[in-house]
Request: fold
Amino acid sequence: MGSQGGFGQSKEFLDLVKSIGESRSKAEEDRIVLREIETLRRRITEPDIPKRKMKEYIIRLVYIEMLGHDASFGYIHAVKMTHDDSLLLKRTGYLAVTLFLNEDHDLIILIVNTIQKDLKSDNFLVVCAALNAVCKLINDETIPAVLQQVVELLYHPKEAVRKKAVMALHRFYQRSPSSVTHLVTNFRKKLCDNDPGVMGATLCPLFDLIMIDVNSHKDLVGSFVSILKQVAERRLPKSYDYHQTPAPFIQIKLLKILALLGSGDKQSSEQMYTIIGDIMRRSDTTSNIGNAILYECICCVSSIHPSPKLFGAAADAIAKLLKSDVHNLRYMGIDALGRLIRINPEVAEQHQLAVIDCLEDPDDTLKRKTFELLYKMTKSSNVEVIVDRMIEYMISINDNHYKTEIASRCVELAEQFAPSNRWFIQTMNKVFQHAGDLVNPKVAHNLMRLIAEGFGEDDDTADSQLRSSAVESYLRIMGEPKLPSTFLQVNCPTLVSYAWSSPSICMCGMLLCFCCIQVICWVLGEYGTADGKYSASYIGGKLCDVAEAHSSDDTVKAYAVTALMKVCSYEKAAGRKLDMLSECQSLIESLSASHSTDLQQRAYELKAIISLDGIAMENIMPLDASCEDIEIDKSLSFLNSYVQKSLEEGAKPYLTEHERSRTRNISNFRNHDHHDASTHSLRFEAYEVPKPVISARLPPTASLTELAAVREQSYQREVHRSPSVGSLSDKGSQELRLRLDGVQKKWGRPTYSSAASPSTSDSESHTVNGTGKGKSFEPSSRRQPEVEIPEEKQKLAASLFGGTTSKSEKKQSGGGIKGSKATRSTADQTRATTAVVHPPVDLLDFGEPSGAASGSSSTVDPFKQLEGLVDTNQYSNVSKDPDLLSLYSDAASTSGQNQNQETGNLSHGSGNRTTKGPNLKDALGKDALVRQMGVTPATQNPNLFKDLLG
Amino acid sequence: MGIRFVLMVNKQGQTRLAQYYEYLTLEERRALEGEIVRKCLARNEQQCSFVEHRTYKIVYRRYASLFFLVGVDNEEVSRAHTFTIMCPNELAILEFIHLLVETMDRHFGNVCELDIMFHLEKAHFMLEEMVMNGCIVETSKANILAPIQLMDKAS
Reply:
């Protein structure tokens, strides 16, 4: 109807809208907008633009920004428009300003004055417009300028103003709580406002307040309960009803508040039981809004002090949701179940098959929600199945954001509930293999620590078994043809789809291995030869393979050579003759001449160590000493006497780097003709880093840093591993230097004496260790998940839920399966019967009813009818704009009718039907109007006028 | 309720209305809209009307060729902190979208994409009445439309 009064805009505007509407690609749209920007730039500065015209220009600016282009050239005109006397223009001006500017924009200062003036206006609509702007534009500094006025407006005679004033104060509270702490009591007063709209709005700030401080609002429980009761009993004006439900959005907000207030508070909770029970009983489970309220009730019930009666009602409601064919409802059901199991985990058991259905559903949203539920109900008896499933899912997706999330959850669950260390190691290996670049590097350390510490008991045989199994598993992983390429293949989809988002991801094939290879090298180095199954030369050969496979990666080579050093020294310490494979020899030789000082250092250390005798070796590299504490004299006090002596002999005192930098010219010069690799060691001045060398050496590191930046979103990154760079940068440029700390933590100080190298890392792992003692690793005698081929689902159910009950340990395998069978058969039956009664129709399917056969039968295509009314020859491409809602009602009546076989609510469906008539006329009317305005659809069926049902 | 944006986007991914309740730069908006629309368009109508996207949970609903998308805070789930409050009620948001469409329908009479395009500011005004500070503040159609009707009369 509003539109029937004429569009009221110029042809130019209509043409713009039309051309935007008709553009069929982003590029075309961009061209239109760019042209529009040029036009507006010229026009908007012309003198004496009529106000109406100006308003149109402002809306055109809004279009430009909405479509992703910069319209800042016109901001000032929007600001000017807020000064206008005409309400419509003023409000349009405010709207444009709130869309264009953020709170800290320079132009805001020009608006504050206008806002102040408008807040005083006699016209309450002007005051409302200003209050809208207050919510969006006032920042911390400008709050005082309007605060007093806003507070006064809380008691304005017009309810619309009071409502907006409440929200403005709410905004101030959000922005800067301290500025309004003395005013929050006003919210309590406004809760009793006699206008339901104001009361409803006040719930928003009160919710925020209560969330921060529950206890000081306990006295309001009675008020909230009584308001909720009145709302539920339809005491509010009819206009708040939505689909025959009384003020559902207010009910939901109140339930959220009650959930907060009743949490862990028996007395408050008891006041709520009756009303929550009533609402649950009354809620209309055939409508979305009824289910939304029901869901909120379940949330509330699971949050407040438990009541057996409400718990039962909530469980029944969940059962209904989960049985639904509508994905949205099942989703809500799964979510609600995740909440209710906090009160009693057993409630999940009766829904096991529904849960597994959701888990196996192709809908990713539902699947993810179900994983969330499983994550919440994981315990030591089902951790294996759940984590296996999660890893499987993790492998299947290529969205790094969720991969990271799932990987970290797998790690968390595994660390918390691992039934055996062996399983833990295998699980971690899988996570590393598939998401090594995404997990926190700390995880690798936890794993290495676990292997080093074993069971923490004095069970040496078990420990060594664990270690040999770790060695075995890593040798197997390496045995898989060509480590890097396999990993790259696995990650190809990731690579391809994410390469655009960040170039660093291109390195992910390599990085994947980082965590993995770090662990592999370390384990092989420490324990490769420990059980005597593998010879030192065999392990050495494997380590060389690793180094060769990553010949471009200094970090990996550093891992490998250090591990090799350990293997060699243990071998010698054990008094065995050391056979170095020729490939090992050549590796060491090549590393001795490496560009990386770190690798050189390591290689030379290795050579030096090999030449020592067994006893010295034992001291330098004690066997399996990674958990021993090592004391480090950080102040180097043992050198004091030496330093003293040197000083006495006339040596120069030590200068700090800062002091040295003043005398840099000399050292720099001396440094210049030195050996290439040492350019890094004696440089005190930040001259330009030689580009080619860096690029050859740094790619892995550079990418590491970048990737780390990406990763930081999901977890805090502790340290960075890149020893090669660490030593490179030891005295080098600033940014490189920063990473040195991480290096020391990981692999010891490579530039120190060889003995310090493993031991520093050991001491590191030991310190971390103190915090991790609480982990519960249970003996490996746990039951195996019996997932077999037939009746796979049942087995899965049994393994997931079998252990849910407290008495699970005994009845687990047998009882779990039996129970699930029973449930299953009944569930199948119900499903079969429901299938007969009504074919599954998505109630929310309001779009094109193309998919559902049942939908199309009862849907009337308005364009079929249109064609009858309009001469098809002449208007073969007639602009038809069917209205959205009639389409909706169309589909709704379809689905409604299907549903109504149960509900008997057919009148609603057919009621919607009657709107079809006017719809057609309207569509034609609008069409005609548009044509009158001169907007004629182009011949090639433009999108805007397109037959939407076709 | 933590609404962070309301978007109307057509099937071709063209934005028809955008209202953000937190500040994002033009580039961020452009990227976000592109990603979200791509995600939602890829889904079929049997699937949930909810999609997770980074820190957002997106509730969307399709009317003819127009998608209505509402971004809400995504709930953080952790085992240690099992009591999560800031959870959105996705179904309620879904119905909120419908309320918005019904309101527009009452005003425009059989609302269509063109109505929103030609009366962009009015669509915004309605949204301004319904949502403030990311919270649903008004759900009575009469109250939502009253100021707009008064304004129409005055001008």
